[in-house]
Structures are given as structure tokens and as C-alpha cells.
Amino acid sequence: MSPTLIVGNWKMNLGVRESYDLARQIAPACEGLQKTSVWVAPSCLSVPAVAKVFRDSAVEVGSQNVHWEDRGAYTGEISPTQLREVGGSFALVGHSERRSVCDESIELCARRALGAIRAGIKVIFCIGETRGQRESGQTEQTLTAQLLPFLANVQPSHQPAVIVAYEPVWAIGTGLVASEVEIEESHALIASLCQRYLGDSTTPILYGGSVSPANFEDILRCRGVHGVLVGGASLSATKLTELIAISEGHG
Ligand code: PEP
């Protein structure tokens, strides 16, 4: 069985020194894990410092966004090669805060993800419906529309670099968690799309949205959940350590 993947998204919450300190605090809990992989995504300026802490460990460090080109006139962007050069191995793409606050379109997110994967960066491709979309019965349509421009264009040889995160927008940072049925239905849909377009049923599918030590066990029990993308709780060494312990004790 593949290890449960716990990914911490630190967003724009910590400075470089704070990110380094948090990485040092969680490092001991990340050693010798049997059932869990831990990845962290600090803000990009902190990636080198955090990657240094985890240099000799299994913890992977990544960025919260990435560009599709390796270099060029793209002011303000981070290239996949630059990310790799400072110790990053993966990137989040399409996080709902990028889609809503920064107006990133479905096509732009797909382009970012495809370019990064071509350049050797693993991608956690985030999708999710708003409360309004769920209430109007548009969840399936929304998730499919967000995922297809990416999935349908992944080269077969790049399939192992694909991870999908299902993050209902209404559950991110709100304390609301999707129900077991909502999680299982969405994960089943994503799994069927991965099977159809990648010809693969092993693509890891993460759940994200107010994951905490209090609800993690229930989330892990949902069919089709291979791990979690964690925002708020990943900023606390205590909570992240608890999540790791729960994962290690699960199953
Ligand atoms: C996120 O931002 O990806 C996230 C899931 O945040 P939180 O855990 O705080 O809801």
C-alpha cells in the first residue's frame, strides 16, 4: 500500500526565518515513517531554507505555484528549473486562492501544470467547487471542467508526476469539512477521469479543506483518499506532528 501523503501548504503566512524554524520543529516527527510521506510548500522565498533542513530526509519541499516556461520575460514568475535549483521537487497548481484571488483561469492552470511536469516537477493539481456550485448541482461539471484541460494533455510518461487535490472551496480555511459521501463521490469522479485519460488508477488523490487532528481519522477512512493537503493546521508543529502520528497509526 502506498504511504498516506500529508502536504502542508504554508501559504504566505511565514517569513523565511519562521519557515526555517517550523521545518526544524517538525523534522524529528518526519523521520523513520512507515506509512506516511510528508511534503511541505512554503512560500517560494523560503524554499531554499526549508529544503536545506530536509536535505537528507524523505520530506519533499515545493512551491505554491509555478510557471510553464523555463526562462524568459515573465516578470514575477517562478520557473520549474529555478525551483529545482533551490531544492524544490513539486508545485501546487490551481489552488482556489490562485483561481479566485488572482483570477487564474482553467486554461492557465492547465498550462502551468503541463509545463512544470515536462520540466520534471511533480504537480499537485488542485480543483474544487464553490458552495454555490455544489448547491446548484454543478459539482461534477465543475470538477471535470477544471481537471480535463490538464489531464487530457499529460504525456503517458509523465503520469507518475500527477497528483490531484480535491479541495471544496467552501471548506478551505472555514472549519467546514466535506462529508464522507461528498468526499467519496468527488474522489471517485476524479479517479475515473484519471483512469480514462491517464490509463491509470494509481494517481494519488488528496482531500483538502479544514483538515485537523480532530477530523483526520474520519477523512482517512473515506474510500479513495490517499492523503491530505493541509493549510491552517500545517502551520502548527504540534498539529502537524499529530497528523503524522494519526496517519502512522491508521489501518
Ligand atoms: C488549503 O489551503 O489548501 C487548505 C486546505 O487550507 P485549510 O486546511 O486551512 O482549510
The major beta sheet can be summarized as: 8 strands, parallel, barrel
Mean pLDDT: 97
Uncertain parts: none
Please state the CA-atom Rg, rounded to the nearest Å.
17 Å
Amino-to-carboxy terminus distance: 10 Å
Element order, helices and strands?
EHEHEHEHHEHHEHEHEH
Q: Please report the total strand number as a whole number.
A: 8
- Order of strands across the main sheet: 1-2-3-4-5-6-7-8
β-strand percent reads 15-25%
Number of helices: 10
Q: Which molecules are bound in this entry?
A: phosphoenolpyruvate
Please estimate the helix content: 25-40%
Oligomeric composition of the shown chains: single chain
The SS-based structural class is alpha/beta
Main features:
251 residues, alpha/beta, eight-stranded parallel beta barrel, 39% helix, binds phosphoenolpyruvate
Give a description of the structure:
The protein is an alpha/beta fold and 251 residues long. It has helices at 16-26, 47-53, 80-85, 96-100, 106-118, 131-135, 139-151, 180-198, 216-221, 237-249, and strands at 4-9, 36-41, 60-63, 90-93, 122-127, 162-166, 205-208, 227-230. The protein has an 8-stranded parallel beta barrel with strand order 1-2-3-4-5-6-7-8, surrounded by 5 helices. Strand 2 (36-41), helix 2 and strand 3 (60-63) form a beta-alpha-beta unit. It is globular, with a radius of gyration of 17 Å. The N and C termini lie close together (10 Å). Bound molecules: phosphoenolpyruvate. Residues 9, 167, 172-173, 208-211, 229-233 line the site of phosphoenolpyruvate.
